[in-house]
Amino acid sequence: LAKTTQPISMDSYEGQEVNITCSHNNIATNDYITWYQQFPSQGPRFIIQGYKTKVTNEVASLFIPADRKSSTLSLPRVSLSDTAVYYCLVVGGATNKLIFGTGTLLAVQP
Amino acid sequence: NAGVTQTPKFQVLKTGQSMTLQCAQDMNHNSMYWYRQDPGMGLRLIYYSASEGTTDKGEVPNGYNVSRLNKREFSLRLESAAPSQTSVYFCASSANTGSSYNEQFFGPGTRLTVL
Protein backbone atom coordinates (compact mmCIF):
# COMPACT_ATOMS: atom_id res chain seq x y z
CA LEU A 1 0.00 0.00 0.00
CA ALA A 2 1.25 3.46 -0.89
CA LYS A 3 2.61 5.63 1.89
CA THR A 4 1.02 9.04 2.32
CA THR A 5 2.53 12.32 3.51
CA GLN A 6 0.44 15.18 4.89
CA PRO A 7 1.08 18.18 7.15
CA ILE A 8 1.15 17.43 10.85
CA SER A 9 -1.06 20.38 11.74
CA MET A 10 -3.00 23.30 10.29
CA ASP A 11 -4.76 26.29 11.80
CA SER A 12 -7.82 28.05 10.45
CA TYR A 13 -10.62 30.37 11.47
CA GLU A 14 -14.33 29.83 11.38
CA GLY A 15 -15.87 30.49 7.99
CA GLN A 16 -12.69 29.91 6.02
CA GLU A 17 -12.11 27.25 3.40
CA VAL A 18 -9.45 24.74 4.40
CA ASN A 19 -7.40 22.70 1.95
CA ILE A 20 -5.32 19.77 3.20
CA THR A 21 -2.93 18.30 0.68
CA CYS A 22 -1.64 14.76 0.75
CA SER A 23 1.08 13.21 -1.35
CA HIS A 24 1.08 9.54 -2.36
CA ASN A 25 3.79 9.13 -4.96
CA ASN A 26 3.64 5.35 -5.09
CA ILE A 27 -0.09 4.97 -5.64
CA ALA A 28 -0.98 1.92 -7.70
CA THR A 29 -3.38 1.79 -10.61
CA ASN A 30 -6.14 0.08 -8.63
CA ASP A 31 -5.79 2.17 -5.46
CA TYR A 32 -8.40 4.62 -4.23
CA ILE A 33 -7.78 7.72 -2.11
CA THR A 34 -9.89 8.08 0.97
CA TRP A 35 -10.08 10.54 3.83
CA TYR A 36 -11.22 9.96 7.39
CA GLN A 37 -11.93 12.36 10.26
CA GLN A 38 -11.31 11.57 13.90
CA PHE A 39 -12.51 13.50 16.93
CA PRO A 40 -10.89 12.92 20.33
CA SER A 41 -12.00 9.72 22.04
CA GLN A 42 -13.91 8.54 18.98
CA GLY A 43 -13.25 6.16 16.12
CA PRO A 44 -12.46 7.58 12.69
CA ARG A 45 -15.32 8.50 10.42
CA PHE A 46 -15.29 8.28 6.63
CA ILE A 47 -15.45 11.64 4.84
CA ILE A 48 -14.87 11.09 1.14
CA GLN A 49 -13.12 8.88 -1.36
CA GLY A 50 -12.13 9.19 -4.99
CA TYR A 51 -10.13 7.72 -7.82
CA LYS A 52 -9.43 10.69 -10.07
CA THR A 53 -10.57 14.25 -10.89
CA LYS A 54 -13.02 15.80 -8.45
CA VAL A 55 -15.48 14.30 -6.03
CA THR A 56 -17.91 16.32 -3.93
CA ASN A 57 -20.32 15.33 -1.20
CA GLU A 58 -22.28 17.22 1.42
CA VAL A 59 -19.28 17.83 3.67
CA ALA A 60 -16.16 18.05 1.49
CA SER A 61 -14.56 18.00 -1.93
CA LEU A 62 -11.65 15.90 -3.04
CA PHE A 63 -9.39 17.02 -5.86
CA ILE A 64 -7.12 14.48 -7.54
CA PRO A 65 -4.83 15.54 -10.42
CA ALA A 66 -4.31 13.38 -13.46
CA ASP A 67 -1.10 11.78 -12.21
CA ARG A 68 -2.85 10.84 -8.89
CA LYS A 69 0.36 11.38 -6.92
CA SER A 70 -1.37 13.84 -4.64
CA SER A 71 -4.83 14.81 -3.50
CA THR A 72 -6.43 17.76 -1.73
CA LEU A 73 -9.26 17.61 0.73
CA SER A 74 -11.27 20.83 0.72
CA LEU A 75 -13.54 21.74 3.64
CA PRO A 76 -15.76 24.74 2.82
CA ARG A 77 -16.48 27.30 5.55
CA VAL A 78 -15.15 25.39 8.53
CA SER A 79 -16.64 25.72 11.99
CA LEU A 80 -15.28 25.00 15.46
CA SER A 81 -16.77 21.52 15.25
CA ASP A 82 -14.46 20.68 12.34
CA THR A 83 -11.49 20.65 14.72
CA ALA A 84 -10.24 17.09 14.37
CA VAL A 85 -7.50 14.91 12.93
CA TYR A 86 -7.85 14.23 9.20
CA TYR A 87 -6.26 11.14 7.71
CA CYS A 88 -5.41 10.65 4.07
CA LEU A 89 -5.17 7.01 3.06
CA VAL A 90 -4.58 5.02 -0.06
CA VAL A 91 -6.51 1.79 -0.20
CA GLY A 92 -6.63 -1.02 -2.64
CA GLY A 93 -6.93 -4.72 -3.00
CA ALA A 94 -9.67 -7.10 -2.05
CA THR A 95 -9.19 -6.75 1.68
CA ASN A 96 -9.93 -3.01 2.02
CA LYS A 97 -7.02 -2.67 4.45
CA LEU A 98 -6.26 0.83 5.72
CA ILE A 99 -2.79 2.02 6.69
CA PHE A 100 -3.05 5.13 8.82
CA GLY A 101 -0.34 7.75 9.16
CA THR A 102 -0.33 10.36 11.91
CA GLY A 103 -2.84 12.56 10.08
CA THR A 104 -3.29 16.34 10.06
CA LEU A 105 -4.58 18.03 13.19
CA LEU A 106 -6.85 20.84 12.05
CA ALA A 107 -7.50 23.47 14.70
CA VAL A 108 -10.32 25.88 13.94
CA GLN A 109 -10.43 29.05 15.98
CA PRO A 110 -13.25 31.55 16.45
CA ASN B 1 -29.10 0.05 13.73
CA ALA B 2 -26.42 0.17 16.41
CA GLY B 3 -23.61 -0.01 13.84
CA VAL B 4 -20.42 -1.33 15.40
CA THR B 5 -20.46 -2.01 19.12
CA GLN B 6 -17.52 -2.84 21.38
CA THR B 7 -17.30 -4.17 24.90
CA PRO B 8 -15.97 -3.28 27.34
CA LYS B 9 -15.46 0.48 27.04
CA PHE B 10 -12.69 0.53 29.62
CA GLN B 11 -10.47 -2.17 31.12
CA VAL B 12 -7.51 -2.27 33.46
CA LEU B 13 -5.37 -5.40 33.51
CA LYS B 14 -2.29 -6.52 35.36
CA THR B 15 0.70 -7.77 33.41
CA GLY B 16 0.18 -11.39 32.44
CA GLN B 17 -3.60 -11.38 32.66
CA SER B 18 -5.71 -12.33 29.69
CA MET B 19 -8.87 -10.84 28.28
CA THR B 20 -11.07 -10.78 25.21
CA LEU B 21 -12.37 -7.66 23.53
CA GLN B 22 -15.71 -8.14 21.86
CA CYS B 23 -16.96 -6.51 18.68
CA ALA B 24 -20.25 -6.89 16.84
CA GLN B 25 -21.79 -5.23 13.80
CA ASP B 26 -25.39 -5.27 12.61
CA MET B 27 -24.81 -4.01 9.05
CA ASN B 28 -24.35 -7.45 7.47
CA HIS B 29 -20.80 -6.50 6.53
CA ASN B 30 -18.39 -9.05 5.17
CA SER B 31 -15.14 -7.66 6.55
CA MET B 32 -14.11 -6.76 10.07
CA TYR B 33 -10.93 -5.24 11.49
CA TRP B 34 -9.11 -4.63 14.75
CA TYR B 35 -6.88 -1.58 15.20
CA ARG B 36 -4.94 -0.11 18.05
CA GLN B 37 -4.20 3.57 18.55
CA ASP B 38 -1.44 4.79 20.83
CA PRO B 39 -1.40 8.41 22.05
CA GLY B 40 -0.65 10.90 19.28
CA MET B 41 -0.44 8.19 16.66
CA GLY B 42 -2.55 6.95 13.81
CA LEU B 43 -4.34 3.63 13.96
CA ARG B 44 -2.43 0.43 13.29
CA LEU B 45 -4.08 -2.68 11.96
CA ILE B 46 -3.74 -5.72 14.24
CA TYR B 47 -5.83 -8.36 12.46
CA TYR B 48 -8.59 -8.39 9.93
CA SER B 49 -11.18 -10.78 8.61
CA ALA B 50 -11.98 -10.29 4.96
CA SER B 51 -14.97 -12.60 5.18
CA GLU B 52 -16.58 -15.01 7.61
CA GLY B 53 -14.25 -17.91 8.28
CA THR B 54 -11.02 -16.11 7.37
CA THR B 55 -8.57 -14.05 9.41
CA ASP B 56 -5.22 -12.50 8.52
CA LYS B 57 -2.46 -10.60 10.26
CA GLY B 58 -2.11 -6.87 9.95
CA GLU B 59 0.81 -4.61 10.83
CA VAL B 60 1.11 -5.45 14.55
CA PRO B 61 -0.31 -8.93 15.29
CA ASN B 62 2.19 -10.10 17.92
CA GLY B 63 0.61 -10.76 21.30
CA TYR B 64 -2.93 -10.99 19.93
CA ASN B 65 -5.30 -13.61 18.58
CA VAL B 66 -8.65 -13.18 16.88
CA SER B 67 -11.77 -15.19 16.25
CA ARG B 68 -14.39 -14.47 13.62
CA LEU B 69 -17.21 -16.14 15.52
CA ASN B 70 -19.82 -15.54 12.84
CA LYS B 71 -20.58 -12.83 10.32
CA ARG B 72 -21.56 -10.37 13.06
CA GLU B 73 -18.85 -10.90 15.66
CA PHE B 74 -15.07 -10.54 15.68
CA SER B 75 -13.19 -10.86 18.96
CA LEU B 76 -9.64 -9.90 19.92
CA ARG B 77 -7.83 -11.81 22.64
CA LEU B 78 -4.79 -10.85 24.66
CA GLU B 79 -3.37 -14.05 26.11
CA SER B 80 -0.78 -12.48 28.39
CA ALA B 81 -1.15 -8.72 28.60
CA ALA B 82 1.94 -6.49 28.63
CA PRO B 83 2.27 -2.76 29.42
CA SER B 84 3.15 -2.18 25.74
CA GLN B 85 -0.41 -3.21 24.89
CA THR B 86 -1.84 -0.23 26.72
CA SER B 87 -3.79 1.49 23.99
CA VAL B 88 -7.21 2.30 22.60
CA TYR B 89 -8.59 -0.54 20.52
CA PHE B 90 -11.00 0.08 17.67
CA CYS B 91 -13.05 -2.44 15.79
CA ALA B 92 -14.33 -1.64 12.30
CA SER B 93 -16.38 -3.27 9.58
CA SER B 94 -16.94 -2.75 5.89
CA ALA B 95 -19.21 -4.23 3.27
CA ASN B 96 -16.21 -5.08 1.07
CA THR B 97 -18.20 -6.25 -1.87
CA GLY B 98 -15.09 -6.06 -4.02
CA SER B 99 -16.53 -3.66 -6.58
CA SER B 100 -14.59 -0.65 -5.33
CA TYR B 101 -13.47 0.82 -2.06
CA ASN B 102 -16.01 0.34 0.74
CA GLU B 103 -15.81 2.69 3.68
CA GLN B 104 -15.06 1.30 7.10
CA PHE B 105 -17.37 1.95 10.03
CA PHE B 106 -15.65 2.20 13.39
CA GLY B 107 -16.81 1.35 16.87
CA PRO B 108 -16.43 3.65 19.89
CA GLY B 109 -13.23 1.97 21.09
CA THR B 110 -12.01 0.16 24.19
CA ARG B 111 -9.48 1.91 26.41
CA LEU B 112 -7.13 -0.71 27.82
CA THR B 113 -4.52 -0.07 30.47
CA VAL B 114 -2.02 -2.76 31.43
CA LEU B 115 -0.21 -2.17 34.70
Note down, in words, how this protein is organized.
- The complex is a heterodimer of chains A (110) and B (115).
- In chain A, 0% of the residues lie in helices and 47% in strands.
- By secondary structure, chain A is mostly beta strands.
- In chain A, strand 5 and strand 6 (61-64) form a beta hairpin.
- Chain A is globular.
- Helices cover 0% and strands 49% of the residues of chain B.
- In chain B, strands 2, 4, 5, 6, 9, 10 and 11 form a seven-stranded mixed β-sheet that branches. Chain B has a four-stranded antiparallel β-sheet with strand order 1-3-8-7, with no helix packed on it.
- In chain B, strand 4 (31-37) and strand 5 (43-49) form a beta hairpin.
- At the A-B interface, strand 4 of A face strand 4, strand 5, strand 9 and strand 10 of B.
Keywords:
heterodimer, A: 110 residues, five-stranded mixed beta sheet, 0% helix, 47% strand, B: 115 residues, seven-stranded mixed beta sheet, four-stranded antiparallel beta sheet
